[in-house]
Amino acid sequence: MERAAPRSATLDAPLFRRRLITWYRSHARELPWRNVSDPYRTWLSEVMLQQTRVAAVVTHYNGFLRRFPTILALALAPEAEVLAMWSGLGYYRRARMLHKAAQFLTQERGGVLPSTAAELRTLPGIGEYTSAAIASIAFGESIAVVDGNVERVLLRLTGRPEQKDAAGRAFVQKQASALVPNRRKGDKTNAAGDHNQAMMELGATICLPHAPLCLQCPVYGMCKTRGEHLTLPRSAQLSRPAAYLLSLRKRGTLTEVLLQLRADDISLMPGMYELPPLPQDAVQGREPLLRLRHAITNTNYYVQVYAASGPQDRGLRRAVPASKSDLHWVLTHRLGSLPLTGLARKALQRLDVMKVDLPKLPAHQP
DNA sequence: GATTCGTGGCT
DNA sequence: TAGCCAAGAAT
Question: Which residue intervals define the domain HhH-GPD in the entry (predicted)?
Answer without folding.
Answer: 48-205
